[in-house]
Amino acid sequence: MAANTLVERARRRLAISRAHQISDQRTRSIAELVAARAPQPTKAPVVFFNASTRLSGVSLNAAFGMLAGWSLRLQGVPVVNFVCKRGMTQCVLGTDRREPPKAPPCAVCMRQSRVLYHGGENVVFEFQPDAALDAALESLDLAGLSAFTWQGMPLGELVLPSARWILRRHHLHEDPTTLRILREYIRSAWSVGAQFHKLLDEVRPAAVVVFNGMQYPEASARWVARQKGLPVYSHEVGLRPMSAFFTPGDATAYPLALPEDFELDADQNARLDAYLQNRFQGNFIMAGVRFWPEMSALDPEFLTLAKGFRQIVPVFTNVIFDTSQPHANVLYEDMFTWLDEVLETARAHPDTLFVIRAHPDEARKGKASEESVAEWAERRQVEQLPNVRFIRPETYISSYDLIRMAKFVMIYNSTIGLEASILGALVLAAGRSRYSQADTVRFPASRQEYQRELEALLLAPEARAPERYRQNARRFLYYQLYRSSLPFDAFLEEDQVWAGYVRLKDFEPRALLPENSPTLRAISEGLFAGGDFLLKEE
Q: Model-level pTM greater than 0.90?
């Protein structure tokens, strides 16, 4: 049995290696065609930086940056890639949180970089230690590292989201592992920032494009560029498969301004309804991941339990370490502070069944939370309360069935809030979300106001959402799906190896010109013509 397992593993590794070799060769071939056909530059350069997108293979966001850069070069815009060459003592993707002293896999990453940036203008950065900085960091505790500033650069603030992401928790422990990671991230962030500063002075770009903007290498670069008054654009995966979201704001906040006069016509409504029909059945993928491999109806036991209460209020949570969370934490310090208050409210309202649902991504293999809602529920003995039902992340009951039974819905900033509004439910949000900007949910202005509204809703005979919430939610979702999610499926397909990783289709470089690609037209106009990075309505 063991021998068979070893053979299968060897075959799997060989298949992965072969698939990536074929993909890399296609990338090099197209890169050479782009280099051969790019005209002489006529404009100021654009700097691209995405050190946190991948190690080996081609992730979606690595591909978005590569294709956008190729398109610009074919338009006569010089592109400078800022490329890591052992430039960080610990990068985000290369950190082994179980063994922090372990060196990141730099050789693998640099080999992939040579493929992705083949034939381009590349400026590499290597780690440059700073003895004075090291001395200043040596004796700092968790609080000191988290708030650390060096020569005006808020390094602690810049690296915290990455430390939380890699450690899979919001509340960091004061332990050697955490302190080491924070120190190495700060040292590396300073080195990245100093070299990026030098690069910007040398090339004087028109703009900077970074992935995500919250992971510390890109966050450091973005901070430096903004200090210089340069426009910085960030990108993340869009809502549809093989799509990207570009913005001059923070990509993880997904700023999106709906025109006041935008209304869905009959065709647009039908298009959205078709999407929602699939989504409400769990049939959707984002970033190569299907979050609901199955979806089951509410079981008879739960339905019997629910009959014993005056009303049902679902409570939907988030993954605590997600890079969207810093944008959400406006009323509350973090989601768990809010959940603690929800629990106190539940104790005061025994006639209400509160159904607290953990996010399914909390238990995703390879990304499971170390500080989870499941852990919180166990620690707080949530299920000992007769009017609280906790649904674990690996339990695939339909959230939409819960919403249809609910008096109203409570969320932090989960996407389910937008869907609940579309279903006609009144949604009370405790965290800022991408859709709270569009008058789709109730999002109180303060923590005190939130508590007053929650109490009023629980005591009211009924809770009805204004019709404008549902209509605005539909408008916002349509914009997200079909205007701001820029499709790259003309150029990319799944690599058949890893979820969220892709390979290039076979296409001619001219397909990357704005006149031949609505996606790349939107990106080019967004970078140079005051565009909004939105697709034109066909």
A: yes
